[in-house]
Amino acid sequence: MFAFAIKRILQAVIVMLIISFIGFAIKHNFGDPVRDLVGQRVTPAERAEIRQKLGLNDPFMIQYVRFLGAAVQGDLGQSYFFKRPASEVIIKKAPATLELVFCASLIIVLLSVPLGIYAAIRPKTLFSRFIMSGSIVGVSMPVFLTAILLIYIFSVELKWLPSFGRGETVLLFGWWDTGLLTVDGLLHLIMPSIALSSIMLPLFIRLIRSEMMEVLESEYVKYAWAKGLKPRRVWWVHAFKNTLLPVITVGGVQLGIMVAFTILTETVFQWQGMGSMFIESVERSDTSLMVAYLVFVGFVFVLVNTAVDIIYGLVNPTVRVAGRK
Amino acid sequence: MKLLPKKSASTFSLFIVATALCAMLLAGCGNDQPKEQAQQAAPEAPAAPQKVTLKLAIDADPVSLDPHVQLSGGMLQLSHMVFDPLVRYDSKDMHFVPRLAERWERIDDLTMRFFLRKGVKFHSGNEFTAEDVAFTLERLKKSEDYKGLFEPFVSANIVDPYTIDLITAKPYGLVLNMATYIFPMDKQFYTGTDDKGLEKDRIVKTDYSFANENESGTGPFAVTSREQGVRTVFTRFADYWDKSGNVDEIILTPIKNDATRVAALLSGDVDFILPVPPQDLDRIGNTQGLKLITMSGTRIITMQLNGERNPALKDPKVRLAMDYAYDNHGVVEKIMNNFATAAGQMSPDGYMGHNPELTPRFDMEKAQALMAESSFPNGFEATMIAPNNRYVNDAKIAEAFVSMMSRLNIKISLKTMPKAQYWDEFDAQVADIQMIGWHADTEDSGNFYEFLSMCRNAETGYGQYNSGNYCNPRVDELTLAAQTETDLDKRAAMLQEVEKIQYDEAGYIPLHWQNLSWASKSNMNTEEIVNVMDFPYFGDLIVE
Questions:
Q1: Residue B195: strand, helix, or coil
Q2: If I label B181, which of A44, A108, A260, A301 is the partner at 20 to 30 A Cα–Cα?
Q3: pLDDT tier at B31 (50, 70, 90 boundaries)?
């Protein structure tokens, strides 16, 4: 087990090195950040001087090694626009994104499980057909379109919900700006969470439905029916429990995709999280914040995946055997 | 026995309903009474005036609180709220009106004397004097972005606490234009070291500095809270000398996404937005309770033709033919949704060099005739680059240009790219035809020629953005002479002559000036506070 964990951690380090290298290569070829820092009148000579000061004139490998050295100590560079350390900026923006992802996941879990099960148990009813055709629309509609539609219906026409931003937030533990504790903050959360969940929700309904239908066909469920168990017990305990495993595995992967979709959602709702921060860093050529975000997100993913793998290994020894080959 | 609980329950609920009714009636009476009292009391002692809050959404957040850290539209918008210039442009036309300087007079060719307003206070409580103006000028000359603009100035001589002389090395006609950039900073507040042991007046672009996070200006609003990129709150400065506006608080939120910014206004979440995206102009204009204001702007969009890279573009007839083949009005109408002004020259109306005779020319027959007469009657091939996220519809305009030139048998291969990559390519002159937009930061025609049309000179920096390598000694001569001409009529004649020369030679192809737009709720005097420079004077805003 120990060897397996070490191996897994080593792999994670290599993956991080690759991510940082790619991120840094993008930064290096992205264009001149100094152009966005100065007015049109600043001469090429002065711009060159600023680039020199920022260390942008050094060869790629020197800059990369310098970046790595600092990154190991937790310093991901300086955001040009925010004028403070990039890691500080990212951590400040993280709660907004996490709250959004959390609320969207909540919507997905609370809706996809009952709807998916219902559509599997009663596949021929009108409601099931409605769910299934509705989910096709949901999957094929881009997030930003859903978001804009929501804003136009509920903010512009009905004036029920606020159109942008996070509303009133409360500071927790001195660093967590949360919108979950105020009415205004919760109202602001509704539309972005729905928009963000709009892609994943139909996907999960379909996934749960198909997995569930498969399980319902299996021998042990038939045996359970034959034993004369009550339908509820067969569905929930025998069938649904076994549906969950693949759903959770897929869910873990999809969580990452969700973080990517926050970029679109946050931009439309002017949601002050990491996603809109990333887009803004691209537009402002704030290249060091850009690369810091890529490395940070990569790090979180690698961390989560490594932890999951190690836990899997603990729980299910066959994984370890597979890992050993 | 069985019925009893039910009965008692029903009597109990009846009792509750009755009590509730009584309570409501009582409350109703109670409510009425104070209302009447209030009505009676109103004429004698009017209730305290309600606080007027303006919720403002702009497409980008100002990068800093230090006005000297960057010369950009966003920073100037902030400066007009928090600081206040010596003089500023009138919002109707481009005349100078007094602000912190009450009046001014030319002492001699090199000296302009400014008489400062008395009794003006900084947000810190310090008194505003000539010392602060001198301090600010010194700092401007240190700023990377501003030192080019303030190079002509040698010094600021303090005559007395309320009189100051600005002295230039050579006679200079744009002293007042430059005075619009002098937003006096609080010398006492910005001198010394902060708690990190750093000089308070350092100008820092990418890191912490005292001035990036603290402010003390004399402007109508003081910054009371700021979370960069999220929200900035400005509070009316009680001691502000000019009492024309009535807004007590401004909450500025940057909203980058065009559709969201418009939706925020339509839903009433914000009161004022800038800019309005061209596709939503009609919608806002047709919405009751909203006000849309647009005007022709001063940013010129042009195509530069590089005759040194492509010999065909050196042929004067080819250049003229291309200018005749470009349909300025057509592009403005179809691609810009009429949200631009077709241009035949660089200087917009209102600039000194604006020459009213030089209108856009579009005549395909004439273009084809000129082309036939040129040394390339059968056309030629050329390359072209344009940005795709810098100017309004830039890539679409470039495509239209390509298709119009194809009617002269000029085959252009076009490459568009984001601005982050564009400017390096532009500087390297990688293509025969390059697009550039330009706003004169001096609000003066001379600036266009210095950067876009003078012969390229690496030492002096003239022609720095002239990627077409257009070069006419007469243009250089006139532009330089205009710099030291203080007789404004003579100066205007010189600048207009430059426009004429460029027009006749087709030194470049002018496309259009981008328009400006603002939208707000209709209970404000929005049209009186906006201007062609796009720094709304929020201090003068009146909300009814």
A1: coil
A2: A44
A3: very low
